[in-house]
Design a protein that fits this description.
The chain is an all-alpha fold and about 280 residues long. It has one domain: MetI-like (MetI-like fold), CATH 1.10.3720. The protein is built from ten helices and no strands. Helix 2 packs across helix 10 and helix 3 runs parallel beside helix 6. The chain is elongated. The N and C termini lie close together (about 10 Å). The N terminus is likely disordered.
Length: about 280
């Protein structure tokens, strides 16, 4: 509701060309990642499909890797894995972070102190260091990547939602609900959640871009997506070995990763700008 009112009040994303560009690019990348297995691009795991370290050509637009595999379907597969792992992890972060942030901002006192300290502890751990610990306990793979991304993006999510909740917790409509006998859960879900939802959506987009960076970094180190599957980070790791002789093995997945992160950030900026005029105006 808040997002709809913001879009109708400010003209929304229609007048934000960069935001519209980011949305189009993001939708295109998501479509390619989701529909990749059904597109006639070839088998991403087929060895010897072309010449080893072959340059881009009409038959292989993005060239071939060290095993002669077609790089184009592997990049498309990498887009799918990078988006999937990052999206699942950030969705988990959004649910947990919103609940904890609202609880800390509204209940305050003991609960606020405990949640804030937990967030500080998680914030102190570098993502890659925590990735090493998670890989040692859970083993390298998708589950470890999801755990690391969720843990790395959770503290900032809690802080943002807590700050917004604090700004609304003492408003008249919340106090009126408390005086009228509304339970804590009703105050959180009916009165506070609609007002923090906009900030949570904006933070979710930024967390998604951070998640893609972390996932790529973990896969680059061999802690994320495991062979024969590919993510953009693992493609960068494999291509870096042949950087001087086959630079396209790094250039293409690197450009795709940069484009994905840029599109998410542009969309997040557009949503933030659309919601800006409503800051401080409660939804009751």
């Amino acid at each position: 509701m808040k997002l709809h009112r913001a879009l109708t009040t400010t003209g929304g994303l229609r007048f934000d060309r960069l935001g519209l560009f980011g949305l189009i690019v993001l939708l295109l990348l998501v479509f390619l990642g989701a529909a990749g297995p059904f597109l006639p691009l070839g088998d991403p795991t087929e060895i010897g499909a072309g010449p080893r370290l072959g340059p881009p050509s009409l038959a292989f637009p993005v060239g071939n890797d060290e095993l002669g595999r077609n790089v184009l379907p592997r990049v498309i597969e990498g887009i799918g894995f990078t988006f999937l792992l990052s999206s699942v992890a950030v969705a988990i972060t959004a649910v947990i972070g919103t609940l904890l942030g609202m609880a800390a901002g509204y209940l305050r006192g003991f609960y606020d102190g405990i949640i804030a300290r937990i967030a500080d502890i998680l914030f102190a751990f570098p993502a890659l260091l925590f990735g090493l610990l998670a890989a040692a306990v859970l083993g390298p793979g998708n589950v470890s990547a999801i755990v690391v991304i969720s843990t790395a993006t959770l503290p900032l999510f809690i802080r943002v939602v807590r700050a917004v909740t604090l700004s609304f917790a003492e408003r008249e409509f919340v106090l009126a609900a408390v005086v009228s006998g509304a339970s804590t859960w009703r105050v959180l879900w009916v009165h506070l959640l609609p007002n923090v939802l906009g900030a949570a959506i904006v933070q979710l987009t930024y967390a998604l871009s951070i998640g893609m960076l972390i996932e790529s970094g973990l896969s680059f180190l061999g802690l994320g997506v495991q062979p024969p599957s590919a993510s953009l980070g693992s493609l960068l790791r494999l291509g870096s070995v042949y950087l001087t002789v086959s630079p396209w093995l790094v250039l293409v997945p690197g450009l795709v990763l940069a484009l994905a992160i840029m599109s998410v950030n542009l969309l997040g900026d557009a949503i933030r700008n659309a919601l800006e005029p409503l800051r401080g105006r409660p939804l009751t």
